[in-house]
Specification:
Elements lengths: L1 H33 L2 E4 L13 H15 L6 E6 L14 E5 L2 H7 L6 E2 L6 E4 H4 L6
Length: about 140
């Protein structure tokens, strides 16, 4: 019986080690993917539309193309991070913009240091450095 318990313990330990390794690899991939994100703070949001409406998404994309000046080819998608809080009417959720490459994100964030955009729209930074701890 002791031999069976030892074998069982060995198999369990091996399975746990494989699961942990797989989870670490997955986390590494997610972190690498987030390096392609750019986060823009203080961008006004359409409060009169539902949180997941197409008009809100289109307005955010229009902001990316027209106000910031990003090319349509480099933007994969954009979305608002966090939950919409009706108790804070002046609060604007961060706008997360997913780009096609890490190089594009570095270009738009001045190598991750961020910069102020024209018109006082807020600070742009890569998500891995700005909202990685707070939202994800």
């Amino acid at each position: 019986q002791k031999v069976i318990e030892k074998v069982s313990m060995k198999n369990t330990t091996k399975a746990v080690a494989e699961a942990v390794t797989q989870k670490m690899d997955c986390d590494k991939l997610v972190r690498e993917k987030k390096k392609q994100n750019v986060v823009v703070m203080n961008v006004p949001e359409m409060k009169d539309e539902p949180a997941k409406s197409t008009r809100r998404r289109d307005a955010d994309l229009k902001f990316c193309y027209e106000k910031i000046g990003m090319d349509r080819e480099i933007v994969t998608r954009c979305y608002r991070a966090g939950r919409l809080d009706s108790s804070k009417p002046d609060y604007c959720r961060p706008l997360v913009i997913e780009l096609k490459s890490k190089e594009d994100a570095e270009y738009w964030t001045n190598d991750g240091r961020g910069f102020k955009t024209d018109g006082g729209t807020g600070l742009i930074r890569t998500s891995a450095r700005l909202i990685g701890r707070r939202i994800f």
